[in-house]
UniProtKB/TrEMBL annotation:
Protein name: Glycine--tRNA ligase
Domain (Aminoacyl-transfer RNA synthetases class-II family profile): residue spans on this chain: 5-338
Name of the encoding gene: glyQS
EC number(s) given by UniProt: 6.1.1.14
GO CC terms in record: cytoplasm; extracellular exosome; microvesicle
Taxonomic source organism: Candidatus Zambryskibacteria bacterium RIFCSPLOWO2_01_FULL_45_21
Gene Ontology BP term (one): glycyl-tRNA aminoacylation
Matching SUPFAM superfamilies: Class II aaRS ABD-related, Class II aaRS and biotin synthetases
Coiled-coil stretches noted in the UniProt entry, renumbered to this chain: none
One Pfam assignment: tRNA-synt_2b
Binding site for ATP: 175-177, 185-190, 259-260, 309-312
Length: 435
């Protein structure tokens, strides 16, 4: 079985990721997060928020609505330009992205004839209110960025920030992808972690390089090897309409080198477009000129945009962490997740499930760790070897076993996920030992 198939199988078997609407045959491009997937996602997003918002003085977090006034998407260019080239088979009626197939004439599925390419808008359209007509047409947002641009004036009026400053948002976005594929990589419902960093035009190159460096630090923080990261300078003809410069950070997935994150210089395109369309001033006012009080300057800031996909981050972390090795004479699958990202940090076992003294002591330790806000699970299902293998597969860094010696001298064994080594410590020293 190929590595990607093994990861998908592990995610289903251990409760990370499930196919959306699975009992009804699923729905293409939709995935549900199980308990361990939720835990992994929440640790990644909490780390991102701490790294880029809480630990900084120049960042303002918001959470904009999924559905906005449809004029937002007209002003941003999405209504007219957010599209992919589409071809359709006249026999099986399957649709393909024209820029992702080799033969633009013959269907790879049934051999039928393909239509001429046409542009397909990827925004999900729906209706607001009681009537389903053009006046009630709205869209599910295809990106989180516009929610920050339309709230730019609110941040200025409320917090009076000084340039440079940023706005950050995490949330869902929706794209009606023609060909969802590669597990979590290309889906129709996804989550983004995004920043719009507002600057003076004259300083865009300095801050572009600054955010390039910050993104590299984040990539290292989540345990992705630099050898698997590749920077692609996107050529002019392939950049988004708003971008003057874009770098894609690509990751070597099992299915090839694909985009993980993006860094774009969006100029003043968005704020200027919304100012023109809405008639509301989105200028920034600087009361000083060249540092001298008494002057004043009004201008529309330019923007550097670092973009991070949550699903692609999770997928990259899983691909980076999945491993197989020999331990104790057996082949095991193990997720070598960074310890701060593991869904479960500690698993507590009683050596035997039917020995009351062992179980009660294990429960006592489990509750002690719970009170310390450590992500912990209690496991007494199966023999000790199977429990170790189960925890290895979900990436649990430490397993604490309560055995008969525990009842004699109040010590337990702590087993390390990566090495399999075990050491005895006092029960009261477990927290300091694992930290």
């Amino acid at each position: 079985m190929e590595k990607m198939e093994k990861i998908v199988s592990l995610c289903k078997r251990r409760g990370f990721i499930f196919q959306g609407s699975e009992i009804y045959g699923g729905l293409s491009g939709m995935w549900d997060y199980g308990p361990l997937g939720v835990a992994l996602r929440d640790k990644i997003t909490a780390l991102w928020w701490k790294h880029f918002v809480l630990d900084r003085e120049d960042m303002y977090g918001i959470d904009a609505a999924l559905i906005m006034n449809p004029v937002v998407w007209k002003a941003s260019g999405h209504v007219d330009g957010f599209s992919d080239p589409l071809v359709e088979c006249d026999k099986c009626k399957r649709r393909f992205r024209a820029d992702q197939i080799k033969d633009l004439k013959i269907c790879s599925e049934c051999g039928g004839k393909l239509s001429e390419p046409r542009q397909f808008n990827m925004m999900f359209k729906t209706f607001i209110g009681a009537s389903e007509d053009e006046a009630g047409t709205v869209y599910l947002r295809p990106e989180t960025a516009q929610g920050m641009f339309v709230n730019f004036k609110n941040i200025l009026d409320t917090f009076h920030p000084k340039l440079p400053f940023g706005m950050a948002q995490m949330g869902k976005a929706f794209r009606n992808e023609i060909s969802p594929r590669d597990f979590l990589f290309r889906v129709r419902e996804f989550e983004q972690m995004e920043i719009e960093y507002f600057i003076r035009e004259s300083e865009w190159e300095k801050y572009f390089e600054y955010w390039r460096s910050e993104m590299k630090k984040w990539i290292a923080d989540i345990g992705l090897k630099s050898s698997n990261i590749h920077e692609l300078e996107v050529p002019e003809g392939e950049r988004a309409h708003y971008s003057k410069r874009t770098i894609d950070f690509e990751y070597t997935f099992p299915f090839g080198r694909k985009e993980l994150y993006g860094l774009a210089y969006r100029t003043d395109f968005d704020l200027k477009s919304h100012q023109t369309t809405s008639g509301v001033s989105l200028e920034y006012y600087d009361p000083s000129v060249d540092g001298q009080a008494g002057g004043g300057e009004r201008f529309i800031p330019h923007v550097i945009e670092p973009t991070f996909g949550i699903g692609r981050t999770i997928l990259a972390v899983l691909c980076e962490s999945y491993d197989e090795d020999e331990l104790g004479g057996e082949t095991r699958a193990v997720l070598r997740l960074p310890k701060n990202l593991a869904p479960v940090s500690v698993a507590v076992f009683p050596l035997l499930k039917n020995k009351e003294g062992l179980v009660s002591k294990a429960r006592e330790i489990y509750k002690m760790l719970k009170k310390e806000s450590i992500s912990v699970t209690f496991d007494d299902n199966g023999n000790i070897g199977k429990r170790y293998r189960r925890q290895d597969e979900i990436g649990t860094p430490y397993c604490v076993t309560v055995d008969f010696e525990t009842l004699e001298n109040d010590t337990v064994t702590i087993r390390d996920r990566d090495t399999g080594e075990q050491k005895r410590v006092k029960a009261g020293e477990i927290i300091s030992a694992i930290r």
